[in-house]
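ESCALATION

Customer reports they have been waiting on this structure for their group meeting. Please prioritize. Original submission:
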Amino acid sequence: MALIDFGGVKEEVVTREEYPLSKAQKTLEKEVVAILGYGPQGYGQSLNLRDNGINVIIGQRKGGKGWADALRDGWVEGKTLFSDIEETIRKATVVQYLLSDAGQKEQWPVVKRNLRKGQALYFSHGFSVVFKEQTGVVPPPEVDVILVAPKGAGRTVRSNFLAGSGINSSFAVHQDATGHAKERAIALGIAVGSGYLFPTTFANEVHSDLTGERGVLMGAIAGLMKAQYDTLRAKGHSPSEAFNETVEEATQSLYPLIGKNGMDWMFASCSTTAQRGALDWAKHFETAAKPLFELLYRDVQEGIETKRVLESCSAPDYRERLEKELNEWKQSEMWRAGAAVRALRPENWEKK
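Update from on-call: job pushed to the front of the queue and completed.
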C-alpha cells in the first residue's frame, strides 16, 4: 500500500497505480459475485462489476421496483437475475449483502443457513455486524467477512464510474477464514469502481458513516439551510433572495470550489468582506455545533441511532410515513422556491 500524508498523519492506502483493474480481474476471475438487493448500492456496484468483466448475479425479490430496475439494466431472469435468494447464495463464492440495514436483519436467517465454507460475505456498511445484538447478524466462522464502503451514494458510484473518475472507498476485514480475505476485499473494491481504498474497521466505518449522514453530509446542512432561510424570510427578504443566498450560491459556486482545492482556496476566491466574516463566524458555529456532534457520536456509538433505524424502517407503515416526511420538505416554501430557481438556471432554460 502507498504511504500518503493526510494533514501531517501518514496513512497507508491502496491506489489504482499499485493495484490496477487487471490485477483485480485476475484475483476475481474464478469468483461468482452475488448481489443481494438492487437498491442504490446494489445497482451501482453490480453494473460496475459487470462492466469490469466480473461474473455477477443478482438476487432480488420479484415484482418490486428493484426487480423492474434490474430487468431494465439488462439482468436476465434465470441467468443473471434470480428471485430465490437461497439459490442465488448457493451459486456464489462472494455474497454482497446490500439490502437495507432493516432488510439485512430480516433476511439474515435465510442468508446464514445457505452460506458455506470458503465463501466471502461482503458488506458496504458495518451496521449489521457491529450492532449484532440488535440485528442478530453473526457470520459463521468458516466464511470471510469483508467490507468495501464507497464514500458516496450508489448512483454516484455508477455515475463517477461512467465519467471515468471513480470514487474513494474504505475497506476492512472482520474475519479471515480463507487467508485471502484482504486480497478479496481490495480486488472487489477496485472492481466496483474505487479510485483509492483506505483501511478501516467495521466499527469505525459505521460510527463515522452514521455521524456523517446525520451531520455535515445531510442532516446538519439541511437544518442550517432551513434556519438561515427562515431567518432571512422573517427579516423581509423575498423567497428567491433567501434561497439564492442560502442554497444556490453554496451549491453552484462555493461548494464546488471547496471540492476542487479546499476550504482555504474557497475563502481566497471570495471578497475580503466575505473572507473576514466567514473566518470569524466559523468559530462561532464550531463552538455552537461541537456539543451537538459529541451528542450525535455518543448516540451512534451506543446504538441509540441504529435501534431507531431498525424500529422505524421495519414498521409496516414506514413507506407511507417516509413519503409524508419527504413531502413536507418538498412542499416547503424554501424548496418550492428552489425548484423555481433551478428552472431559471441557464442550462435548464436552454432545454425549454
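Sent to customer with the following note: The chain has two domains: 2-200, 212-349.
Escalation resolved.
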